[in-house]
Amino acid sequence: ENIFDRSRMAPKTPIKNEPVDLSKQKGCTPETNPITPVKIIDRPQPDPWTPTANLKILVSAASPDMRDREKKKELFRPIENSEQSDTPDSLQYDIVDDSTVDEFEKQRPSRKQKSLGLLCQKFLARYPNYPLSTEKTTISLDEVASVLGVERRRIYDIVNVLESLQLVSRVAKNQYSWHGRHNLSQTLKMLQEAGELQYGELMTSQHKEQDLEYKFGERKKEAIPDSQDFSEPDCISASANSRKDKSLRIMSQKFVMLFLVSKTKIVTLDIAAKILIEETQDTVDYSKFKTKVRRLYDIANVLTSLDLIKKVHVTEERGRKPAFKWIGPVEFPEKTDELRGHSPTSDPLPETQRGACTQHQSSTTGKQRFTRHASFSSAQPCEASRRKVSSEPSSPRQERQDENHSKMINLAAVCRQKIEEDTGNKACDTEMMLNSAKNSNITSPFSLLPVPGDSDFCVNPLPPAVFPVVQADVPSFSLPVGISSQASQPSTPAASKTENGKTTLVPNQPFLCFPSSSLFMLCGGLQENNLSEPLPTAGDLGNRSAEAQAAVLPTVCQKRSSHKCSSPSAPVDDEEPAAKKQTLEHSDLPLSLVVPQKPSESPKAESSPGSGCSAAVHLEMNRLDLANPAAPEEANESTKPLDCQEQEKQSQKKDPDERPPGNEHISKENANQSFQPQYLYVQPTAGLSSFNFLFSANQAPGAISLAANQLPSLSVPCVVVPSAALASFPLVCSPPFTSPLSPVPDCSFSAAAPTNFSMSSLASTTPVFISTAAVVTPKVSPAPSVDPQQPAHPALHLSPVLTRSCSAVKLDSPVCMGHPMTLLKLQQPSSAPLTPKSIRPAHHEAFFKTPGSLGDPVSWKKNEGNQTRNASSVQRRLEISSTSPD
DNA sequence: CACTCCCGCCAATTA
DNA sequence: TAATTGGCGGGAGTG
User: For residue A633, what are the β-bridge partners?
Assistant: First the structure.
């Protein structure tokens, strides 16, 4: 009885939600307002008289029941009509009291009727799947919430997921615009590509998925003992991520990626949760896991409403587990770029703002340990900037998305290939995969995919699009593959490994890659034992993942980058396939690297405004892709198919000769121009002699940072690798030129021969790939970055390279330098060989890895309290960016 | 009891 | 400062 009375009263006292709703609602009387009901509290409170009490009462009055009823009505009736009901509803309320109650009870919507999935369907029903391009449908959150009879909070849940798929985009406060599914396939494609980068390995084989769990935890632990670097204060501290990193939006994209990458197209919730959890440290929280699962359900409900997935159950040893099966499109035809309008919307690159973060790592001599040089600052800006910054008032968020997309695209392009694999390395593979996943943050452009032993890899050149320049410009670059200790350090431990190069190498293997355009280098496990050192691998993986994430995440860029190295564990692959070994042999030589020239050429590279920052780039890319591709030019190129061969050819064409003798600089950035330039660089000189630097063009966003600089700078991600370290890598090749280039024997590259490398065979054999992700962050400009994007798509096909392990070497260049030049700076540290490991790796690992937890259920158990909400570990990782202050 | 996941508190962001 | 967003996790509904 009281309740009723109260209900009546309710109108009088304003409840927080009510006012708004009422006003908005169509003329409903306050009393009636169906909307925003407040929750009911059944039990009367002790102090009815307190203000609070009144509120509660009111709330209770508002009770859910009423809402439900309304909802039902609405649901059942055509949407259009829904509004009408209001009035009646009000009546109902009253009525309800008496007679209706029972009825309600019967019909009571029950939870299902209030489910997010159903709500989403109602929401979707309001808008056409394929709206005419001409019509712009704007969505008012308040309106929708009121019409659907739910609180606004729920609408956010829906919209955020839809936004992640580009079905809607935020235009302004309380305003979203409806795009429909026109771009869905493109978005999915991007996600798929990005997903491959990040998670490809993982999902490669499903069985592994299962394994993953175990491995995840265990392996990591094992592998990484050292790696804990993650925890490094720097990293952690740096991150204060905004919550956005954890956002539903991002989770949604990642979740979708998992499906797209999965062969079976079935993803179990727990696995997804584990993968998506980022963890900072070893400890995993059970609570965190639960929370993740909750979110996944939220996302899954929306995706289900979109008919993209459906619920299924998979039975495993442990029993049946909830899972979801992808029932959406699997193949994404190239789409039409045209379709999307190019809308050059005004957003010139929002990304620019975002600084990229870079990190450096130096490799130390003997071991590959990475330390970070750079300080990482969080790139908060990125996110923060995201909304605020976005220059375009119109749609800040979109930008974000775009960014993501772009990144994704880039990444995808870069690394596209998949590797099938798997023969042998189960454990390793999985780990790697896992690691990689975890590491997503990586800045480095390259994404690595771990390849199991056999796989072949091809190196794929970057997609032309991406690095358009390359074709033209790049004459060649060479990469030296073999690394062995050669020169400088024979003795060093590294050397030892390398010494043979072969043997050791073999195991670890590495990879290489080189896209024609830029350079890439990567390496697999450095250490002699691969096993022992996780570093490389992890790093690689991490990088990849990082990038991917970056791509995914909007803000991302900066943040993530920081973590490049993974220290840990990633175990490199243990075994390498024979093939690898072969390759390894080659490796003896030190790498030389290729590098695009920096300065001179730089213009290209850096240049493009867009290119500058990786982050920016990504973003841009996204836009382009999604929104509009702006970069037509590239697109053309992009179309090109790039095969290694082709690339090679191209490169050849350009000029093999060009390579400067000096090893290092060969610049090739070419391609990048619009893109991010990617480079590889090695410096033999001076103190560094032993070290090589590598830069990837694309660094992960994180890697670069540039924040402030006005410099067009880019951040180049670089990695310094001790020569020794390199040794382990088998080779690097740039696909393109195989033949033309110097005639080097496959493998051999001596350090000396900077110029050329031949890698002919290598490439194929090599297990690893590297992709570059270029990153540049340009904060700057707005520019034109766009181009890259389009190409990217095509690129995707092409590119890809992956490697798995590489990371060891990588470093981030902490600084952003606009040009390669900067790299030099990095060198300084050189004297000591550094290994990256410590530095970021941790993050990487952390990143996907679910804490061992997966492995250990036990561990999960409560830790809740710990974290602060603020920073999610993941974010932290991401964030880490180096700031290069200077 | 396990699985789902609604609900809404309240912090982070924005306006 | 107020409003908007949205992370988060308690705990309720379902089976």
Answer: none
Contact between A5 and A58 under an 8 Å Cβ cutoff? The reply is no
What amino acid occupies position A812? Answer: D
CA dihedral A702, A703, A706, A712 (to 10 degrees): -120
pLDDT in tens, A649-707: 333 333 333 333 333 333 333 333 333 323 333 333 333 333 333 333 333 333 333 33
Strand B-contacting residues in A 59-118, CB cut-off 7 angstroms: 59, 64, 111, 114-117
User: Confidence band (pLDDT; 50, 70, 90) for A109?
Assistant: low
- A319-326 and A370-372 strand pairing: unpaired
- Check: CB of residue A165 under 8 Å from CB of residue A326: no
Nearest protein residue, CA measured to C1' of B3: A322
* Residues A593, A602: Cα–Cα separation, whole Å: 17
The whole-angstrom separation of Cα A303 and Cα A293 is 15
Quick one: which of A39, A50, A54 has its CA closest to A9? A54
Distance A322 CA to C15 C1' (A): 14
Predicted TM-score (pTM) of this structure: 0.41
Q: Is the pLDDT of residue A612 over 60?
A: no
Q: How far is the CA of A806 from the C1' of C13 (A)?
A: 49
Q: What beta strand segments (E) does A753-842 contain?
A: 768-770, 816-817
* Positions in chain C where some atom is under 7 Å from a protein CB: 4-11, 13-15
- Which nucleotide is closest to the Cα of A242 by its C1'? B12
Sequence-distant (6+) residues with CB within 8 A of A482 are A501, A505, A584, A585, A586, A587, A588, A589, A590, A591, A726, A727, A729, A730, A731, A747, A748, A749, A750
Distance A13 CA to C5 C1' (A): 26
Q: Which of residues 136-165 of A touch strand B (CB under 7 A)?
A: 150-151, 153-154
**What single DSSP character describes residue A668?**
-
For residue A5, what are the CA distances in angstroms to A120, A542, A821? 33, 61, 76
d(CA A494, CA A75): 68
Residue A199: pLDDT band with limits 50, 70, 90: low
Spanning CA of A303 to C1' of B7, the rounded length in angstroms is 21
Could you give the CA distance from residue A383 to residue A386 in angstroms, rounded to a whole number? 5
Closest residue, CA to C1' of B10: A869
Considering all nucleic acid strands, name the nucleotide whose C1' atom is nearest to the C-alpha of residue A249.
C6
Instruction: Tell which CATH architecture fits domain A116-208+243-326.
Output: Orthogonal Bundle (1.10)
The gap between A295 CA and C1 C1' (Å) is: 31
Q: Report the distance separating Cα A763 and Cα A608, nearest Å.
A: 30
Torsion sign over Cα A522, A526, A531, A537 = negative
Tens of pLDDT along A725-784?
A: 333 333 333 333 333 333 333 333 333 333 233 333 333 222 223 333 333 333 333 333
pLDDT in tens, A219-257: 332 222 222 222 222 332 223 345 665 578 888 888 888
Covered bases, chain B (protein CB within 7 Å): 3-15
Mean pLDDT score across all residues of chain A: 42
Tell me the pLDDT band of A334, cut-offs 50, 70 and 90.
low
Q: Which amino acid is at A574?
A: D
CA of A153 to C1' of B7 (A): 9
3-state SS assignment for residue A775: coil
- DSSP one-letter string for A67-136: HHHHHHHHHHS-HHHHGGGHHHHHHHHHHIIIIIHHHHHHH--HHHHT-HHHHHHHHHHTS-SS--SS--
Give strand ranges (E) for A655-713.
Answer: 691-695
pLDDT tens profile A126-168: 888 888 877 777 888 888 888 888 888 889 889 888 888 888 8
